[in-house]
Amino acid sequence: MRLARLLRDHVGEVVAVFALLLVQALCELSLPRYMSDIVNVGVVGSQAGNVAYLGHMALVMLGFCVGSLAAATLSGLIASRVAAAVARDLRREVFAKVLSFSPAEVNRFSQSSLITRCTNDVQQIQNMIVIMLRMVMFAPVMGVVAVVQVMTMGGGLAWIVGAALLAVLGVVSVLFSLTMPRFKAMQSLVDRVNLVTREMLDGLMTIRAFGRQDHELGRFDDASGELRDAQLFVNRAMTLMMPIMMLVMNMATVAIVWFGSHGVAAGAMRAGDMMAFISYAMMIVMSFLVVSMVAVILPRAEVSVGRVQEVLAVEPAVRDPEHPVAPAADAPRGRLVFDHVGFRYPDAEGDVVSDVSFSTAPGKITAIVGSTGSGKSTLVQLAPRLYDPTSGTVTLDGVDARRMSLADLRSRVGYVPQQGFLFSGSIRSNVAFGTDAAGTDAPGAAGEKGAAGQKDLLRAVEVAQASELVSQKDGGLDAPIAQGGTNVSGGQRQRLAIARALAMRPEVLVLDDSFSALDYATDARLRQALARECADTAVLVVAQRSEE
User: Fold this and answer.
1) 460 closest CA partner among 412, 418, 504
2) Judging by beta carbons within 10 Å of its beta carbon (0-12, 13-18, 19+), is residue 316 exposed, middle or buried?
3) How far is residue 341's CA from residue 392's CA, in Å, rounded to a whole number?
């Protein structure tokens, strides 16, 4: 799995954490022995001798305490850095995989689930790595060494430790069987809360317009209540476990004192050894308790690992060919040909479109007209390979689109969807989104290249009939745009989306019902500008009426 590979990239840090935890365990396990020696030795002579002896032992024990503290601090720091680095890399891989998905793969998981998997699930994995490096590695070392110490001490009290361990394992087994189903369901419930929240936010205007606030609030309460109930059940189970474990440890301590005192009275063991035995017994029980608690907590992280792995294991239906082919330099530009093309959505009963053939030419406008639901948008989405046809071929400049690299194909095809989406930033960053100047909000890059970029952006804005919008905004091209373009109207969003495609200077411009929010006058001016300024570009227009 990719998680194991990411951890292997930090094997040096993992080894360092293990070494530090071993030092911490040895330091803590040495303290009971010194306490035992102090109690067993008792008075060694004069008062000055006792003071010197106790001072020496105190310094040694202080050294062990400082060493344990330093090792614990360093191991915690390294473990946290490793976990954060792995989570960062894993989050990047998941997001990169999602960016390669076609709409079919996105719909398979749903947007809310993908957001949860990129954030909450990765966070659960990060917490799991910290727990594994700090507790799962430390507790066994502590427990095994403490068992060895108990076995070497003798005294006939080992059975008490065994009984305590059996009680701990029994309690954990019961809790494990009760909480495991809730842990597995919890992430799905988080998905549902995110789904309802996202749906409510996207449809907020519709909810208000129809006065359905109470109904939607009830839906949210239902989803949130199920998640609350699952979390409460798990948290109560975890809360119940600690008092039971403390009862087991206290009973074990009482038993050791009871039977150990009889051993001391009979001369079978010394008082210091009994005190050390109590300390080691508590360390053993606590070690097994930690491992058991981790075993109960890890199932949720295991579910998150599976959910992230499920995303990473998906092979996108649309991907780059192994050996991409580029159109010949002398090939005619802007010739997009659909040859007996058919398409069927995954798991659909029939084709959305079938046996469609047409071609485009530079300087010409090709219109696809049809009623709602006739498959117009699906058809044009085959041009930039948002989907691949299930039959027939789509070629651009004489090359099958499936044989071209996605980057090359999509640099030649400018696609404007029905709903023009704008990103947070500025008008400049949105219009330049598909160009080399994307990502810069500066008025211009250095030298001639920056001037050329500015000129191309202004040309695209002018052709898209958005010049008036730019001139009215404070800052012009550098005027801010909110996320989703919520601070501009629907028509302005469409015009800026068209300008974004034009700024790429594509060979083929695909307009998927992109004039729906424009008035007739703006629509007419835009079509005239396209015909005048895009003489070397093929235009493919989707419309619902022939008069459009």
Assistant:
1) 504
2) middle
3) 4
Q: Decide if 313 contacts 367 (C-beta within 8 A).
A: no
Token pair, residue 8, equals 């292997």
In this prediction, residue 394 carries a pLDDT of 93
The DSSP string of 33-93 is: HHHHHHHHH---SSHHHHHHHHHHHHHHHHHHHHHHHHHHHHHHHHHHHHHHHHHHHHHHH
- H or E stretch including 433? none
pTM of the model as a whole: 0.71
pLDDT tens per residue, range 462-495: 998 988 888 888 888 888 998 888 888 888 888 8
The HSE-up count of residue 352 (CA atoms within 13 Å, CB side) is 22
Q: What is the pLDDT of residue 44?
A: 54
Strands 336-343 and 391-396, by their bridges, are antiparallel
Judge contact between 299 and 184, C-beta under 8 A.
yes
Q: Are 366 and 538 in contact (CB under 8 A)?
A: yes
What is the distance of C-alpha 94 from the center of its chain? 6
* Amino acid 42: pLDDT: 59
pLDDT of amino acid 172: 76
What pLDDT is stored for residue 293 in this prediction?
67
Q: Are 304 and 1 in contact (CB under 8 A)?
A: no
Instruction: Quickly count: other Cβ atoms within 10 Å of residue 504's Cβ.
Output: 20
Kindly give the parts of the chain with pLDDT less than 50: 442-452, 547-548
DSSP-assigned states of every residue in 499-544: HHHHHT--SEEEEESTTTTS-HHHHHHHHHHHHHH-TTSEEEEEES
Residue 95 is which amino acid?
F
Name the residue among 451, 456, 445, 372 with its Cα closest to residue 414: 456
